[in-house]
Amino acid sequence: MDRYVKACPVGCRSQLLPSPIVMPEGALLECSECGQLVSQVSTERYWSTMRAFDDPGYSQLARRESERSVAVANRRLRKITRLLDRTPQDTRLLDIGCSRGHFLAAAVAAGYDAEGVEPAPRIAAAARAAGLRVSDGRLDEVRFADAAFDALTMFEVIEHVNDAVALVLECRRILKPRGILCLSTGNARSWTVAAMGPRWDYFQIEQDAGHISFFNPRSVRALAGRTGFEVEAIRTSRVKLAERSELSGLAYRGLKVVSELLNVPARLAGRGHDMLVYLRSGG
Q: Nearest CA to 136 among 122, 150, 153, 154?
């Protein structure tokens, strides 16, 4: 089979060995150096799932989802502002893989000089129709100027690429010295993975299109070290012990309570399944 991911996306030269997590396309492969997990999905299957991101109905949020999205965006923007020690009005920000521009709109509303880049052409056009500045294409195709931005954001993007080093090096090129890169992705060393293994929807390419590369705090640090970034913070949150479809309503609600009780210790131990990372460019 023509595997889409042939080497560790973090740049390790160590072997990729079968892990205990077996998916329909084969066991997830684990880098023996950094612990990164990668899918054995074929190139053809990978690209067929990625078409979902250009569906006209993709990423349309209901009102409550939109309100929550704005609240999350504002928390992240405040953290970026503190790390940069400058006002939003003095901060040029690029949202990479901005989709319809939910985060980008929050940044503009907060006063940032913000724009986005999005490879799905119809979704990029929808963002522009909403009044946002969005370029079509992948980050490396747009070719922004060197040191053009004070801050970059990249939410739920890096798990879709088979060469994270190339992507993050391009981020460093367009980021000013001491600028901030904020990214989010799943944590493959979470208590959710320990409890659910292959049942976690994040690993399932049928559920989460294009997911092929699964990070953990150690592999994030390795990636930062290879690309000229310093780790400012790695935060994890949330625990899930089962999918709703696996249990009766009463059993699921009981397990949901247990999951919520685990949220605080998981965050303290770095074992939540949502991972938010702040990196600072060297210089």
A: 122
pTM of the model: 0.95
Q: Do 169 and 72 form a contact (C-beta atoms < 8 A)?
A: no
Q: What is the pLDDT along the chain (283 residues), one digit of tens a residue?
A: 699 999 999 999 999 999 999 999 999 999 999 999 999 999 999 999 999 999 988 888 888 899 999 999 999 999 999 999 999 999 999 999 999 999 999 999 999 999 999 999 999 999 999 999 999 999 999 999 999 999 999 999 999 999 999 999 999 999 999 999 999 999 999 999 999 999 999 999 999 999 999 999 999 999 999 999 999 999 999 999 998 888 888 998 999 999 999 999 999 999 999 999 999 999 7
CATH code assigned at 82: 3.40.50.150
* Domain extent for 183: 16-281
CB of 266 closer than 8 Å to CB of 228 = no
Strands (E) across the chain are located at 16-23, 26-31, 37-38, 92-96, 113-118, 134-136, 149-155, 175-186, 213-214, 229-237, 274-281
Q: What distance in Å separates the CA atoms of residue 56 and residue 65, rounded to the nearest whole number?
A: 18
Number of domains present in the structure of the chain: 1
**Is residue 90 included in any domain, yes or no?**
yes
Give 68's contacts (C-beta < 8 A, 6+ positions apart).
Answer: none
Gap between the Cα atoms of 64 and 241, Å rounded: 25
Report how far apart, in Å, the C-alpha atoms of 271 and of each of 75, 188, 254 are: 21, 9, 21
Domain annotation covers residue 6: no
Query: With contact defined as beta carbons under 8 Å apart, do 99 and 127 qualify?
Result: yes
